[in-house]
Every structure is written in C-alpha cells, then in structure tokens.
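Lab notebook, bench 4. Continuing the backlog of folding jobs that were queued last week. Each job is logged with the same field layout so the records can be merged later without manual cleanup. Today's entry covers TMD11 protein, a 196-residue chain. Filled in by technician R.K.

JOB TYPE: sequence-to-structure
TARGET: TMD11 protein
LENGTH: 196
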Amino acid sequence: FHIGEREEKCIIEDIPSDILVVGNYKVQLWDIHTHGFLESAPGLGMFVTVRSPTAEVLLSKLYGPQGTFSFTSYLSGEHIICFQSNSTRLAVIAASKLRFHLDIRVGEHFLDESAIQAKDKVNEVTDRLENLIEQINHVMKEQDYEREREEKFRKTSEATNGNILWWAIVQTLILISVGIWQIKSLRDFFIAKKLV
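JOB STATUS: finished
OUTPUT FIELD FOLLOWS
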C-alpha cells in the first residue's frame, strides 16, 4: 500500500492468545526525478507500534527502511499494528509518497534450515516432528479461539432474539389495549349522541 511521508497507517489483525506474530516490511521512497520508487529509502525509518485489544502497547520501536518485527499476543482479539515514518521534514515539504510492502505471519515458527541440514537424519526428523507438533498446537489454539468467538456470538444472538420476542409481545398488548379503548370510546360516544 502507499502511505504519506508523515502519515500513520494502522491495520487490524484478529489474533488468538499466546501466538507469535512476525512481520516483515520494506519501504520505498518516491523519486521525483525518475518518477518511480527507489529500491530502498535511505535515512528513512519506520516507527512500529502494536496495541493489544485493551489498548496496551505491546511493541513500540523504530526500525530502518526495511526490517522484521515480532511480538507475542497474550490476549485474544483485535490487535492494532501502526506504521509511521520517522521523517523530520515539515508536513508541507514532506509530500513524498512511500510504497510499503508488508508481510505478516501469525503463528510463525522459526526454523534454521542450515542447522537442520548440518544434523543427521534422525535429528532432522525430530526437529520436523517438533515443528509439526507446534503447528498442531497453533491450529488447536486457533480453533479454540474461533469456538469462543462463535459461542459469544451465539449468546449475543439468543439474547437479541429474546429481546425482540418480548418487544413484539409488548407491542401486541399495546395494540390490543388501544383497540379495546377505541371501541369502548366510540361505543360511549354513540350512546351519548343517541345514535345507537
């Protein structure tokens, strides 16, 4: 996506608890002379701020024009990840566009391929097995989180349906009582005017 030089952009990621999140990014600066984006943005860094669902800051750090950040969620819910350049130019002068490449991986597991190749086949199989078990645990956490969200949504839906039912009953009783009152008032009116 594109971002202004002094602009802050935020994205929202719905993340279960106790999950490692790794993000890689790269910033390219617009070059007026070539009318294209430079391969990198020398001297330009990015502030990365991550907030938990309770608005607690999990990560706030200045990185270079490209980098990797990571954090572990301790609460499940919507985490806000914000990016802003460290440009010190005035807002009027800092009209440059930045191209921002972002790759976020939720539940990332680090594997050192060179270390795996150096070990014998038994250790490689053991490492792969441990990685698979870790991935299975991640999938189970993700399923538990989705199950919790579904249960919460179901309870909210049932409560809303119950409220709608009671509101419909109250409206029906009001309409019936108003109808009875109108019939009684008309009957009394006709009797008073001696039309009946």
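OBSERVATION: The longest strand covers residues 19-31.
SIGNED: R.K.
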